[in-house]
Design a protein that fits this description.
By secondary structure, the chain is α/β, with parallel strands linked by helices. About 40% of the residues lie in helices and about 15% in strands.
Length: about 375
């Protein structure tokens, strides 16, 4: 059996090696390293794939979120609602801009932001909602967009984990994750479903004026060299990362299908186990059918009930099976984001999830032998402990 990787970037690279290598050498030969033609080519290709008018590449996913908020001209003290159960970058940029983070609980089905919790958190100071499409599954965007419209709020999609996912509205319309709110953001960190070989990110919007503002912000506030029209930052995608992403983008749907196929096999192995809750997708297809892209499984995350999750992690690692706990500490308990407004009773689901979740290896190169070994090991440990 091949060595099991949490993410097998080398195996993926070998299949596109010739194109990546030649494209990187082409960039080096051209010396167009920053904002070169390859960046603009990738921008156009991603616009076409997502069905959005504007993609603005930037240096990383955290910058993408921050720049999106800067572009919307949110002011210090404005309240921004987001999920408690996610990576810190989402709340980090809110705090960096002197906005007021408002953390709310998630739902226990897909771990995304809870709709009723959003409604309860809205105050006259609320200006935006940041749904995080966690682990590759879209938040309930139809409900979120309705709330935003009712209260005149911005919606900023954190799409760092769900590039390529579809969201299906009740009328049957399907839209790519990141393309539904006022603005969306993503990360091209190497382990993402669409990852480069360094850092990278992008902002998406259908708003022409907002896109214009953001294009200035990412480049020191300049639209004309040495003319600084807005307060900006230095956040640009380099050309080498752009050609890597251009090589991978045509394969993104097949990458995501491979992830769904692996999730199918995981789910089949764990089916009906009383101590294991497998990931959920859309109720119509459970997110892992062959004909839709409603879940792209950036992570395959189980809930382990009435068992020692941390002991399971140690056991898997001892047998060469990498795994992760995303996330072990909720944001409302992190030292940097402690706030007297937060009450533990408001985070019942999150507080339970941090004790139960475990993410198993998930990538495009997983094979049946590896999946069988992983699932058998998990089941054997849980049954015997």
């Amino acid at each position: 059996m091949r060595k099991i990787q949490m993410v097998d970037l080398k195996g993926q690279y070998k299949k596109i090696k010739e194109e990546v290598d030649s494209s990187v050498l082409e960039v080096i030969d051209s010396t167009a390293f920053i904002n070169g033609p390859k960046v603009h080519e990738f921008q156009k290709n991603l616009e076409d794939y997502l069905g959005v008018k504007h993609v603005i590449p930037c240096a990383n996913g955290t910058d993408a979120l921050q720049i999106a908020m800067m572009g919307l001209e949110l002011k210090p003290g404005d309240e921004v609602i987001t999920a408690d159960f996610t990576f810190a970058a989402t709340v980090e940029v809110i705090a960096l801009l002197n906005l007021t983070p408002v953390l709310v609980d998630v739902n226990p089905i897909d771990f995304n932001i809870d709709i009723e919790a959003i409604k309860k958190a809205i105050t006259p100071k609320t200006k935006a909602i940041v749904p995080v499409h966690l682990f590759g599954h879209c938040a309930n965007m139809e409900a979120i967009l309705e709330i935003a419209k009712e209260h005149d709020l911005y919606v900023i999609e954190d799409n760092a984990q769900a590039i390529g996912a579809d969201y299906r509205f009740s009328n049957g319309k399907r839209v790519k994750a990141g393309a539904m709110g006022d603005v969306g953001s993503t990360s091209f960190f190497p382990s993402k479903n669409l990852g480069c070989y360094g850092d990278g990110g992008a902002i998406f919007t259908n708003d022409d004026d907002l896109a214009h503002t953001i294009r200035g912000i990412v480049n020191h506030g300049m639209y004309k060299r040495y003319h600084h029209d807005v307060v900006g930052v230095n956040s640009r995608l380099d050309s080498i990362q752009a050609v890597v992403l251009n090589a991978k983008l045509p394969h993104l749907d097949s990458y995501n299908k491979a992830r769904r196929n692996a999730a199918k096999k995981y789910n089949a192995a764990f089916k009906n186990h009383e101590k294991i809750i497998t990931p959920s997708g859309l109720s119509s297809c459970n997110g892992i059918c062959d004909t839709c892209d409603c879940h792209v499984f950036h992570q395959y995350t189980l809930r382990v009930l009435n068992a020692d999750r941390d002991a399971l992690v140690e056991h898997l690692n001892s047998l060469g099976i990498p795994c992760g706990v995303y996330y072990p500490i909720p944001l409302h308990r992190q030292k940097a984001y402690l706030d007297s407004r937060y009450k533990e009773d408001d985070f019942k689901v999150t507080n339970q999830l941090v004790k139960e979740v475990i993410s198993l290896p998930m990538h495009t190169e997983l094979d049946d032998e590896q999946i069988e070994f992983i699932t058998n090991t998990v089941i054997e440990f849980i049954d015997n402990n």
